[in-house]
């Protein structure tokens, strides 16, 4: 399969999480968000084209890493430019420290330099080898909500009836 097809799930997962963070920031229309997501997917596909190694998933990981660290990741910046979002606006909407790892078979992210790493997408590798020790990871759901000023009120308590 061409790399493009192989990368599709990983790339769409990565683009979706950045889009979701933008949506959570508020004030951007759905049409713009859709355009942003498509532009970002396109930019990632182009960027990763010759740097995708399913047989050695961690190879090139640094090159594929999407990073905001008080500097805007150029790929996010480029996609945002397509919908008229300035870097200043992006910094207001996105975490000031965000790292997103997009590797074959796994997409994960971390907010803050000391945050826990959240796995967004994981698929077994052909051949069944797992690449990374799993115990170093916390898998967390929607952890990016933490850090928003007001906690959401819809906590539901699961009750298990015997």
UniProtKB/TrEMBL annotation:
Belongs to the BTG family. This is BTG1 protein. GO terms for biological process: negative regulation of cell population proliferation. One of its GO terms (cellular component) is cytoplasm. Coiled coil: none annotated. SUPFAM superfamilies: BTG domain-like. It comes from Pluvianellus socialis (Magellanic plover). It comes from the Eukaryota. Residues 94-113 form the Anti-proliferative protein domain. The gene is Btg1_0.
């Amino acid at each position: 399969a061409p790399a493009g097809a192989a990368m599709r799930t990983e790339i769409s997962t990565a683009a979706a999480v950045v889009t979701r963070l933008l949506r959570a920031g508020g004030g951007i229309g759905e049409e713009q968000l859709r355009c942003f997501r498509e532009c970002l997917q396109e930019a990632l596909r182009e960027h990763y084209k010759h740097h995708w190694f399913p047989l050695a998933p961690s190879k090139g990981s640094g090159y594929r890493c999407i990073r905001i660290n008080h500097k805007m990741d150029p790929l996010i910046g480029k996609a945002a430019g397509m919908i008229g979002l300035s870097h200043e606006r992006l910094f207001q909407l996105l975490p000031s420290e965000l790292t997103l790892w997009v590797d074959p078979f796994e997409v994960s992210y971390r907010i803050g330099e000391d945050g826990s790493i959240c796995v967004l997408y994981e698929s077994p590798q052909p051949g069944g080898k797992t690449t990374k020790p799993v115990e170093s990871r916390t898998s967390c759901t929607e952890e990016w909500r933490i850090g928003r000023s007001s906690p959401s009120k819809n906590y539901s308590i699961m009750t298990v009836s015997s």
